[in-house]
Design goal:
Shape: globular
Organism: Saccharomonospora azurea NA-128
Number of domains: 1
Distance between the termini: 7 Å
Number of helices: 3
Radius of gyration: 13 Å
Structural class: alpha+beta
InterPro entries: AtuA-like_ferredoxin_dom
Protein name: AtuA-like ferredoxin-fold domain-containing protein
């Protein structure tokens, strides 16, 4: 099956809510929102971030924007005020999500 990188289809913005990384995925072409909705699932994102995820990944689809918002618990290792990592907000982790390969 052919694959495509998420980076070829979308942009990602990152934020944080405590220990949870929040990633908003915005398709560059609104025609790709159905592909992203069907292929970029909670399971795909959880698997991509691996053992850093400490609970269920949740996804909210915002069709009127269009966007998909993921909450990924645990990957910020304590959050902005509790983590000793340099990227407590998780901004660089948005680039990690862009390396997901999606089947098309």
């Amino acid at each position: 099956m052919p694959t495509v990188l998420l980076d070829d289809l979308a942009d990602v913005r990152a934020g944080d809510k405590g220990d949870a990384l929040m990633l908003a995925v915005f398709p560059r072409d609104p025609a790709d929102v159905d592909l992203l909705t069907s292929r970029l699932t909670e399971e795909v994102v959880a698997r991509h971030f691996g053992t850093a995820v400490t609970g269920p990944v949740t996804r909210t689809v915002l069709p009127r924007l269009p966007a998909l918002v993921f909450a990924i618990p645990g990957v910020l290792a304590g959050g902005v005020t509790g983590s000793t990592v340099l990227d407590g907000h998780g901004k660089t982790l948005s680039y990690h999500l862009l390396t997901v390969e999606l089947t098309i």
